[in-house]
Amino acid sequence: MSKRDYYDVLGVTRTAEVTEIKTSYRKLAIKYHPDKNPGDKEAEDKFKEAAEAYEVLSNPEKRRRYDQFGHAGNSASGYGGGGMNMDDIFSQFGDIFGGGNPFESFFGGGGGGTRGGRRVQRGTNLRIKVKLTLEEIAKGVEKKVKVNKQVKCNTCDGTGAKDKNSYHTCNTCGGSGSVRRVTNTILGQMQTTSTCPTCNGEGVEITAKCTSCKGEGLVRGEETISINIPAGVSEGMQLSMSGKGNAAPRGGIPGDLIILVEEVPHETLKRDGINVIYDLYINFADAALGTSVEIPTIDGKAKIKIEPGTQGGKILRLKGKGLPEVNSYHKGDQLVYVNVWTPKTVSKEEKELLEKLKNSANFKPQPGKSEKSFFERIKEYFE
Ligand SMILES: [Zn+2]
Ligand SMILES: [Zn+2]
């Protein structure tokens, strides 16, 4: 089998610069890449042929010998005879594609940023609301949220191209994404660089668009995202997850996911900053005789003792039973506001009993120095 001319294989002239050889080889390597042509022997041969041609023409010494002696010039190197094996070819890719999946690198994906000056598009940010219960806020929670967003098109692997033959390095800019223009001005020649109008700075020209995504490389889809909500967040707070927003067109950098915190009101507890408030109602008899009651807290029920002679309006403080501050060890308290319930109606029997009690000396209000005023209680609460 006679070998084809290396310059013909890469489709370059005998005077081509190394950059042109590289670009041309990259194009062929993507076109005939085994991942894109599984089981295709012809593609594999072309892939190897291009790799061999590149190996020789990208090396000044080998190229000189080839120019002088043809294929015989490099036979001793091993490439002139038996050709390259796949491992040799892939090890060469670090140089061509900068590592990783060549297809991705070619389109500026895989890590993002601008590659060789090419413009990489950015996906838009996505905003979602997450409803959280007080219990979830107290402990922090991992929320799995199904998000409707723009995702990479699977048909074209996000490239926007119809198939492997329908894209190539932009001819206008040679894949750099920018064009230089020299203009004559009164000050002399001026060189300006601007975004390539053909490929819009992307360095790749698509000749036939993927029909699933109309060339955008994006489709509407769903993604289930795990969001780690730290303990202590509050209504209206915004959390941000970098790169979890909408995917970018044709392998760019995805946007961020912005999570807006919404509190679900608790049935019995009210939040006040890092404190939690509970309104307790006890009857007059329990207030006078003392009792123990079960009350709700963020982490389950708790039993509290009501001392005999407890006045309405007393505030009990359960230390550390409140909410944590975000990113801090400081924790709030639960405050129990004791209300003494006065019956709105009484039976005849109850009325008689109350009439008997009301003239007792003990029932006469006699606030002393030991009673805290309303003002003092409020002050204490805000401490
Ligand atoms: Zn271009
Ligand atoms: Zn597509």
Short account of what is shown:
With 383 residues, the chain is α+β, with helices and mostly antiparallel strands. The protein has ten helices and 15 strands. Bound molecules: zinc ion (2 copies).
Structural class: alpha+beta
Sequence of strands across the biggest β-sheet = 10-11-15-14
Number of strands: 15
The helix content, as a percent range, equals 10-25%
Kindly provide the radius of gyration, computed on alpha-carbon positions and rounded to a whole number of angstroms. 38 Å
Query: How many helical elements?
Result: 10
| Parts with pLDDT < 50 across at least 5 consecutive residues | 76-82, 98-116
Name the beta content range.
25-35%
Q: Give every kind of bound small molecule, once each.
A: zinc ion
Mean pLDDT: 84
Intertermini distance: 92 Å
Q: State the shape.
A: rod-shaped
Helices and strands, in order, run as HHHHHHEHEEEEEEEEEEHEEEEHH
Could you describe the largest sheet, including whether it forms a barrel?
A: 4 strands, mixed
Subcellular location: Cytoplasm
Family: Belongs to the DnaJ family.
Subunit structure: Homodimer.
Organism: Sphingobacterium mizutaii
